[in-house]
Design a protein that fits this description.
The structure holds 3 protein chains of 3 kinds. By secondary structure, chain B is mainly alpha-helical. Chain B is built from 9 helices and no strands. By secondary structure, chain C is α+β, with helices and mostly antiparallel strands. Classes of the chains: A mainly alpha, B mainly alpha, C alpha+beta.
Chain lengths: 209, 194, 190
């Protein structure tokens, strides 16, 4: 199945961009906060990704539908209201239907509001593009964010806790690398991840300031 | 945390539960602006000011929200208040301190979407339920802690730029992550202090 | 001028739309959340009182075994055998801690403890507060005071072993227990 056939030429480019070339975390270094904070257990990473994708899609739909009538000077406020409302919904749904995960993620759920990815896409894409493309962009960026979070979380959970989604996977006698459960460990794992993906995708290092 | 002393709030926020190194927040600007010491200094100062202002404002507003039972719109209201405060600060600076504005300029809008600002507003209201004075102390301490982390990492990064041979893929955000990780590890040593 | 009105109007309408939508979602999820929080509290009270329960029978076990009363604004839970339980909250070593303390019918020893929230160091401090370790606190005397002593040295009836490497958390829980037990005993007039 060719991407082009599925989504049309423009759509294919949008998807490829979102997932690899302009990956939100690797190349634009957006949305790092949660990549660090929520990535120590896979189930939290899944919940966070789901939350971010939901808000991305909601924002994509609303903003692209209203893009022709949003007064330009207040567009940022409109993004904020939409995103904040979407996140409130995610927060409530988590508290009601997945209370254990909600407690584990704690104060990081409302911080989806400040996740630069969503604001960034709203301004750079949703407000200028038709709904269908915006939805694709939202999905692509969301999934890219999701797979990164999970890659880091799988690595951290296995090495720091010895489990995967709560199921013990390391052999007995394995000593957990507890440092990876701590915030400090998150930095190391993310640093390594950035190193690998940026080298592979050929991203140019930022110029010296 | 009703009886926690102000001093212990200060030390905890500064060193033990450092917003950047423990809660892992504010990373977007942290990574972007830790490349040089001067930008780190500027950003840090701006953050301290904005955080204290916004959390004070949001604290007051939260009392109103609680009194009227409308906490459901808390997130929307908080983020708009933050944006408004930042706009206000920008306008005041443009009018009265134009030179300062020129050097701070780009950092201010970045701060609006800085997770630290929203986080602190939320922490002092819903998560910890602090009093007003505690809120101010906490906000200042946390912001100073953020600043502290930034300048340490920036200083190390600058040195590394001069003498190190950082692999290409690691340059920029990658090496900042590694440096920050090491500093975070170091700060973990503070956890016995309070 | 018209433009300004249009702008503000747009934002207001947009804001009101979303506020209403959120109130709707809140009404739908509210009862479920409250039910969960109530059940959670009850589980902790049962845990502290060492009354066994099944996952699905919390409400039933609670209502048939525990009586709730309000004394001076504080909820006191009394079990059939006379032991009482109450919530406590205070500073831990890394952040606020809260839970339920239960006293024996004679009010001079701990029946049990359950922790609701804590933010101690994972793998170190939090081990003191793990359910398994909390069992060590059961039946320990709180008169004159509970004492958490270096690991392996507990001998008297009011001493509990600390965990090496988790001194601060051990100290925090010790002082929280003593303080809150004293306060509650004063409250109920003992």
């Amino acid at each position: 199945m060719n991407l082009k056939e599925l989504f049309g030429k423009k759509g294919a480019k949008t998807v490829k961009n979102g997932i690899w070339r302009e990956h939100p975390i690797s190349s634009a270094t957006l949305g790092i906060c949660s990549a660090l904070a929520i990535s120590n257990k896979v189930e939290n990473a899944i919940a966070m990704s789901a939350g971010v994708i939901f808000v991305l899609i909601l924002t994509a739909i609303i903003i692209s539908l209203l893009r022709k009538i949003i007064p330009s000077r207040v567009r940022i406020i409109i993004y904020m209201i939409t995103i904040a409302a979407g996140v409130t919904i995610v927060d409530l749904v988590l508290k009601a239907y997945f209370p254990i995960i909600s407690e584990a993620m704690g104060p990081y759920v409302p911080l989806i509001i400040t996740n630069c990815i969503i604001m960034g896409r709203a301004e750079a894409f949703f407000v200028q593009n038709p709904t269908k493309l915006s939805l694709l962009d939202a999905l692509a960026n969301g999934l890219a964010y999701g797979y990164t979070l999970m890659a880091i979380a799988i690595f951290r959970e296995i090495f720091a806790f010895g489990t995967l989604l709560g199921v013990r996977v390391t052999p007995a006698g394995w000593v957990d690398w507890v440092v990876l459960a701590a915030p400090a460990g998150a930095f190391f794992v993310l640093g390594t991840f950035l190193w690998v993906t940026r080298t592979l995708a050929g991203v140019e290092p930022p110029k010296k300031s | 945390m009703g009886e926690t002393s102000l001093l212990s709030i200060f030390i905890t926020a500064l060193l033990i539960q450092n917003v950047a190194l423990f809660y892992l927040l504010g990373m977007c600007p942290f990574v972007a602006l830790s490349r040089s010491l001067t930008t780190a200094m500027g950003m840090g100062a701006a953050v301290i000011f904005v955080v204290t202002l916004t959390s004070s404002a949001n604290w007051v507003i939260y009392q109103i929200l609680e009194a009227t039972g409308s906490q459901i719109i808390q997130y929307i209201v908080f983020i708009i208040v933050i944006a408004a405060c930042v706009q206000l600060v920008e306008m005041i600076m443009e009018r009265f301190f134009p030179a300062l504005q020129a050097s701070f300029g780009i950092f201010l809008p970045l701060i609006t979407v800085n997770c630290t600002v929203l986080f602190i507003s939320l922490k002092v209201t819903t998560v910890d339920g602090l009093s007003y004075i505690q809120t101010v102390v906490y906000s200042v301490s946390a912001a100073v802690g953020f600043w502290l982390a930034m300048i340490i990492v920036a200083a190390i990064n600058e040195k590394l730029d001069l003498i190190g041979r950082v692999p290409k893929g690691l340059q920029g955000p990658g090496i900042i992550m590694v440096i920050t990780g090491i500093i975070a590890l170091a700060f973990m040593g503070f956890s016995g202090m309070v | 001028m018209i433009d300004k009105i249009k702008m503000i109007g747009f934002v207001l309408v947009f804001g009101i739309f979303w506020a209403t939508a959120l109130v709707a979602v809140d009404t739908m999820t509210g009862p479920r959340i409250e039910k969960y929080l109530l059940e959670k509290k009850r589980k902790k009270v049962l845990e502290a009182l060492v009354i066994p329960y099944e996952k699905d029978s919390v409400e039933q076990v609670f209502t048939s075994n525990v009586k709730t009363e309000q004394i001076d604004g504080k909820e006191i839970f009394t079990a059939e055998d006379g032991s009482i339980a109450f919530e406590f909250a205070g500073p831990g070593s890394q952040g606020p801690m809260s839970g339920v303390i239960a006293l024996s019918p004679g009010k001079d020893a701990l029946k049990g403890i359950a922790i609701i929230t804590q933010s101690e160091t994972p793998g170190l401090g939090s081990r003191v507060l793990a359910a398994d370790n909390l069992k060590n606190f059961r039946d320990k005397k709180v008169v004159p005071e509970l004492a958490v002593v270096p690991a392996g040295t507990a001998s008297a009836e009011n001493e509990v072993d600390a965990i090496t490497g988790a001194t601060l958390t051990s100290n925090a829980i010790e002082s929280l227990i003593n303080k809150n037990v004293k306060a509650t005993k004063t409250l109920i007039g003992q």
